[in-house]
Each structure stands twice: as structure tokens, then as C-alpha cells.
Amino acid sequence: MSSMQSASTCFVHELNQNAKNDLQGWVASCEQRYRQQVLAAVHEIVSNTGKDRIVLMAGPSSSGKTTTAQILREELKDRGVDSVTVSLDDFYLPPDCFPVLPNGKYDYDAVECLDLPRLRACFSELIIENRTVVPRFDFCQVRQVGEREIVVDDDTVVIAEGIHALNPRLISPDLADRFFRIYISTQTDFVDQGEVVLSARDLRLLRRMLRDYYHRNSSFNNTLDMWGSVCAGEDKNIRPFMHEADFLIDSTHQYEPLLYHQSLFPLLVDTKWENSVHREKAERLQKALIQFGYLPEDIVPKNSLIREFLRDFH
């Protein structure tokens, strides 16, 4: 397994000093740190083109899977390697086929929500026959609405992205060595005077709060309402399969807390928390963010993964 094995640590005072010394240079170095990890993954994939036919990418919510998959495609193209993408979301079954939790609600995060036999068959057909037909799932209609054919050659890389991508149940055991598995998440804690001010999971929460607010018309309270079950689903369905990964990517950009102090903190302050069950968590996040300096949105490069969570992302 390559890249990072466990959470790393950033010190708040060092980040603030980096921002004061050379803000643009520091932002560029943070971007480069992430990009170098992606390039290292690309090198591994290209080195095994023809053997590792399918790249499986998994990670918890707001890890940057979508943007990273796109960057992988661009970098592969620059090296003369064709690629296609497959979204595991297209293999969802109708909700009435989902497992039911003890409280009577559907377990939307269970791997059994996917059409596993068809998924395994599609992967096998791509590897053996160089073609398959995958479904299309419409989340508005909550059902499969059609199909699309995928045709590849022996050197085409298939990138399959989804929260369950590393679950061994998705692939036939006899073809397991034809897959390259990537796990992406934030892996860095932010520390001040020996205390964790923002954990790696907190950073993903801040990303998701911004993304939901700007792009899903969802209030902070609504995001926090869901966050507990999101994390429980991660602990049950995603993290146990980290050890399956051939490569780990830490999508943390060290300047993020300073950016969120500038862009998210004012929105948190303006939100009415008095009668919210999330008041304590909101206050903790605000208290954490004020320990960081400021970083304006316009200094974040247009092609940055972090743009996925900001106001002007398209």
C-alpha cells in the first residue's frame, strides 16, 4: 500500500505563520502536495496498464472523490491512456429492495442497496470481453431509467467511484488482481498546544456544510441532522475496507481552515442556533475556526479540488 497510512498532524501556529510569510506560495505548495499524491497514483496505474484494468476509488463524504476521479482521467489522457468512468450510484436498486434497520427505516448506506450481481457481471465483462452495458439511475425518479454501453480496448482504464468501491463483494474473487484500489479521505488533524482543534472528520464536515449550503439548498442544521448517520455509515461500510486499498490519498489542503474562517465562519455566526440541538457543535466549530487566520476564496486556484465545496463550483 502506498502513500499515507495514518492521520498526520498540522500545527495551527505554523499554518498561520505560513500564511503571513507567503500566502500565495503556501497555497501553491498545499495544492502541489495533493497533486503529487494523485500523480503517484497515476504512475502506479500507467505502470500496470493492461493488468490493472479497473480503478476502484472509495472514500467517505466530502473527501473529493469526484474531482480526484476527473483529475485522474486528465492525467491519464496526458500520458496517452484512454479512460472511462462508471458511477456505482447507477447500480442502486429501488428503495423497496433496501435493507431495513431495526427502527424500521431503510439502510441507505448498505452495500446491499446496490445490484451486486449485475455490478460483478459488468466488471467481469469489461475485463474479459472489453464491453458491457451499465444501468442509469435517476435519483429524482428513484429508479433505473435506461442503460449505456461501454466499449474499451485492452489498455483503457475504467475508473469506478463510489462509497462501496473497496468492498470485496463488488468483484469476482478470480479477477481481484485486475483492480487497482484507491482510498481517498482527509487524513490530517489540526493541533494547537497539544489539543486537536479540528479533526480530519471535522474538516470533511466543514466541506460538506459549505457544499450543501451552496449547491444543495440545505441549511447547516439539516447537514448536521444527517451527519451522525453519515459518520455511522462510514464507520460501518467504508472504513473497514481501507486495508483493501493499494493507494491512499490524503485530500487535506492545509490552508482549508483559514479559508473556512473567511467563508464559512460568518455564515455560522449568522445562523440561529439558540433552539438547535446542534448548538454545542456549531459553537465548537466556530471556536476552532477563529484560531486560524484568513484566506480569501479568490486565491484558491480555479482547478483546485477545494473548488468542489465553494460557491462558484460548476
* Amino-to-carboxy terminus distance: 33 Å
**Beta strand %:** 15-25%
Uncertain segments are: none
Task: Compute the number of helices.
Answer: 9
Please bin the fraction of helical residues. Answer: 25-40%
The average pLDDT value, as a whole number, equals 92
**Largest sheet: spatial strand order:** 1-11-8-3-7-4
> Tally of extended strands?
11
Give short descriptive properties of this protein.
six-stranded parallel sheet; globular; alpha/beta
Walk me through this protein's architecture:
By secondary structure, the protein is an alpha/beta fold. It has a single domain, classed as Rossmann fold, CATH 3.40.50. Helices cover 39% and strands 18% of the residues. The protein has nine helices and eleven strands. The strands form three sheets. A six-stranded parallel beta sheet has the order 1-11-8-3-7-4, with helices on one face. Strands 2-9-10 form a three-stranded mixed beta sheet. The protein has a two-stranded antiparallel ribbon with strand order 5-6. Strand 9 (188-192) and strand 10 (195-198) form a beta hairpin. Helix 2 packs across helix 3 and helix 5 (200-215) crosses helix 6. 36% of the residues are buried.
